[in-house]
Design goal:
- The protein has seven helices and twelve strands.
- It is an alpha+beta fold.
- It has an eight-stranded mixed sheet, with helices on both faces. A four-stranded antiparallel sheet has the order 1-2-3-4, sandwiched between helices.
């Protein structure tokens, strides 16, 4: 059974999401928006004994599923289909499926370098400037208004952390993390094409890792980026579907 998360089941749902990369993404949105916004909705799936088996979020049309063990996959799939159709949801890979990408966890910090030139929590428009530069290179750029509004909520609630590197005053590389109490997930990292291969992305990632030290740190990436993140000390712990 899937039920909308309300005040009476809010803390139990939050506890279920704790310590999980998908759960961190859900908690970052939940703690930023609360449960009273029509564009940010959250549900829990329960088994017959009343235990939560999955938590689902929808932010506009983007859905995320946190499921740590056995859950009613058919019910979840039908629910997602009814909400967003074939757009689907970001969720853990299931047995027998081919994953879209990798879930990696920071196991041992291997790179530490001077990040004094990295600006933490810059102007949101500067982040977007870098993202626009990456359009058409496999990086999906959201509409500005949606991105700006979302980041405003998250920065105010301290559930997002971002960083940029500038060259001659212009932002050329950026990254962002979603945060919960004990977990952080790197959700975006990009450098303008003409500034790649110069170490800017590496410094952005290092600065974000510095600021989230003490948390369990995850990222979700395409398989082609495995070697890049492995250099930082990330190790593959699972896969995701989207």
């Amino acid at each position: 059974m899937i039920k909308l998360i309300e005040n009476e089941n809010l803390e139990v749902a939050k506890a279920y999401c704790t310590g999980d990369p998908f759960g961190c993404r859900i908690l970052a949105a939940l703690n930023a928006y609360g449960i009273d916004k029509p564009f940010a909705l959250f549900w829990a799936q329960y088994d017959e004994s009343g235990e939560i088996t999955a938590v689902v979020s929808r932010l506009d049309t983007a859905m995320t599923i946190c499921a740590k063990g056995e859950y009613d996959t058919e019910e979840i799939d039908c629910f997602v289909q009814s909400m967003v159709g074939d757009m689907g949801a970001l969720r853990p890979v299931r047995s027998g499926e081919a994953a879209t990408g990798l879930i990696m966890r920071l196991a041992e910090r291997r790179i530490n370098e001077n990040t004094s030139d990295v600006e933490i929590n810059p102007e949101i428009s500067d982040l977007y400037t870098v993202m626009e530069e990456c359009a058409g290179t496999g990086f999906e750029v959201p509409p500005f208004d949606a991105f700006y509004g979302d980041m405003i909520y998250r920065k105010k609630a301290k559930t997002a952390l971002s960083a940029i590197v500038r060259v001659n005053g212009m932002p050329v590389s950026c990254g962002a993390m979603h945060l919960s109490d004990n977990t952080a997930v790197l959700v975006m990292c990009a450098s303008a094409p003409e500034h790649r291969g110069k170490g800017y992305t590496r410094r952005v990632v290092n600065a974000l890792l510095d600021k989230t030290e003490g948390r369990d740190i995850y990222l979700m990436c395409l398989p082609c980026l495995h070697d890049f993140y492995e250099k930082f000390g990330f190790a593959t712990v699972g896969g995701f579907i989207y």
